[in-house]
Amino acid sequence: MSMAKRALLALGLACAASLAHAQATVTSLRSLYVLHCAGCHAMDASGHPDKGVPSMRGTLGQFLRLPEGRAFIVQVPGVNNAGLTDEQIAALTNWSIQQFSADTAPSGWLPYTAAEVAEAKRNRPVDVAKLRAQLVERLQQGGATLR
User: Fold this and answer.
1) Is this model's pTM higher than 0.85 or not?
2) Which of 2, 79, 94, 106 is buried most, with the most CB atoms less than 10 Å from its CB?
3) CA 58 to CA 3: how far, in whole Å?
4) What is the pLDDT of residues 77-132, one digit of tens each?
5) Residue 29: helix, strand or coil by DSSP?
6) What letter does residue 48 receive in the DSSP assignment?
């Protein structure tokens, strides 16, 4: 291998290590939201419903009213493919509910735990869109207002 190729490889490895370290040191929940959620759900969590990305504003809390809805929030592909630990997912989900949907969450709702996230991830739905539609329908039948 030429000296130039070795130098380029070393530079690439150093950049990759630096990026991995930077991602591992992000501790702010808002920063985790920006890095892992805002790309699809937007900075204000309004999503892009016309493109199949639902809004989280005023809706996340509604899902907590059903055990299957609560699990669903942490079973969606975006959550599971974000590369976050179960602890980070629990903390970020709790933060998102408080930030974007606190007024729709049931009174006294319990925050997610890492153990709950791990359990929900083991039982992910095959058809996420179908399950979401079923959950939305059930919630609407119970008086919830969401799309």
Assistant:
1) no
2) 79
3) 57
4) 889 888 999 999 999 999 999 999 999 999 999 999 999 999 999 989 999 999 99
5) helix
6) B
Token representation of residue 127: 């058809």
On whether the 27-141 domain is CATH 2.60.120.260, my answer is: no
25, 52, 91 from 88: Cα distances, Å = 12, 25, 5
Round to whole Å and give the CA distance between 86 and 53. 22
DSSP helix/strand/coil, 53: strand
Q: How many CA atoms within 13 Å lie on the side-chain side of 32?
A: 22
* Percent of the chain residues past pLDDT 90, beyond the cut: 61
Q: Measure the CA–CA gap between 117 and 71, rounded to whole angstroms.
A: 8
- The 10 Å Cβ neighbour count of residue 105 is 16
pLDDT, residue 146, reads: 79
